[in-house]
Amino acid sequence: MTDLAQLKATLAGLSEQERRKALSAFSAAELERLSFTWELFARPDQLPPPGDWRCWLLLGGRGSGKTRTASEYIRSEVESGRHSRIALISPTAETLRRDSVEGPSGILAVSPPWCRPNYEPSTRRIVWPNGAHATLLSCEEPDRARRINTSLVWLDELCAAPLASQMMDMIQMALRLSGPLGDSARMICSTTPRPLPVLKKLIADPGTVVTRSKTIDNASNLDS
After folding, report:
1. Phi and psi for 175 in degrees, rounded to 5?
2. Which domains does the chain possess?
């Protein structure tokens, strides 16, 4: 298959009709894989930053693509084998299920058929075919984070979370494992920014890399 960067550049310069003609050269299986190749569709700010960071902080307005970015990052880390013990955290159990797991940009929606996880509501887990699993946590119950050890965390909408500071303290202690391939523990935090002490502290942390986006950046994927 053509180099992804080259393919992306080529398709970007074509009209809709020319793009369809170019893609007709691919088989059905190749087209399916291309449809799940995030690098072809993501904006530069939606791809993981380089460097040895501990937290990737996504700051953006509502509808700016934060959830899709975080879901795709979790998916890539699982499929690559870099991380297999994960925690997904949201302000409430309802927002966790509705947005991070079952939402249109959530984990289940971005996962391809060949690596689609099982969602187990009764056990509050997601389990992937390769054995990776995610524990689902609500910020309403920060004490539940005492019982986990993990190498990768997605904390969604930190600034909307009750007991956000307590959950952040708990998850920092739980985030202490290396991935199966030796990768360091990491967290991705996606949130609409508010002037809260917990967010200011996270931004000031030298291990944090901040990516900012606006709703208008994602206009092509939103209803007008």
Report:
1. -85, 80
2. 4-35 (no CATH), 43-221 (3.40.50.300)
What digits encode the pLDDT tens for the residues 170-195? 999 999 999 999 999 999 999 999 99
Q: Kindly report the pTM of this predicted structure.
A: 0.89
How many other C-beta atoms can be found within 10 angstroms of the C-beta atom of residue 2? 14
